[in-house]
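Researcher: Can you fold this with zinc ion in place?
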Amino acid sequence: MTSVRAGRRRVDWGALADAARAALGRAYAPYSKFRVGAALLGDSGTVHVGFNVENVSYGLSMCAERTAVYAALIAGERKFRALAIATDSPNPISPCGACRQVLAEFCSDLPVLLVPLRGRPRRYTLKALFPAAFFDFPGAPRRTRR
Ligand SMILES: [Zn+2]
């Protein structure tokens, strides 16, 4: 896998995909059996990982992408350079709408790599996946970096 620039610094997409795959291995998905891992590269260079966490009360389940974002926020990271999402699927699977909205809160032009079980990963930008995110409303605080 190649490295590409995200902003001014290179992203090691191979390492980020590997981190997402490793996170997938720790997913808690006893109901759907559909495991997802996410690896979010922060501006600091730290990789924050997440995986899906299901619950018998299905509505309480949480996606891998959002657990990665929340782990990063807990660690004090607020700006991100890249995201890799690994799944058990033979095809690349893109993030759900809720995760796209949460990711857009912090970086609407985030490069996103979708890593299938086998086969070729596909890369998008969050802006391409989510072109009309909800950002502004009357009285909303001014956004400084998206
Ligand atoms: Zn999601």
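Model: Folded with zinc ion in place. DSSP finds four helices and seven strands in the chain.
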